Amino acid sequence: MSNAGLSSIDARVMASMLRAGLADAAVYSDGVSPVNCSVVIERDTQIIGGYGQVSGQKTSAVFLRAEVPKPKQRATVTVTANGEQWALESKLFEDESISHWILNRG
Hints:
Layout: H1 3-20, E1 24-29, E2 35-48, E3 54-64, E4 76-79, E5 85-94, E6 98-105
Antiparallel strand pairs: 1-2, 1-4, 2-3, 3-6, 4-5, 5-6
């Protein structure tokens, strides 16, 4: 599948999740200029360490790279509906379409 095809599918999935209340409208800010975006925030995610052990529960977020092309460590994401603010701590996964990050309270 092409990068454009993957991005199109991910954008439609995110739109469906927004309509269903499983994703949030948010503002991403890296200190330069804020960007309106969609985000899926997953609370109490269990992160598996290098040897298969659970290294703790974290909060993570998934961004569409079409909206936030290059998320940066220490940037913030603020959920529009409730003002909840998070800081991007470390990247878990990234491909041409999405970026998945561990978050800390911002």
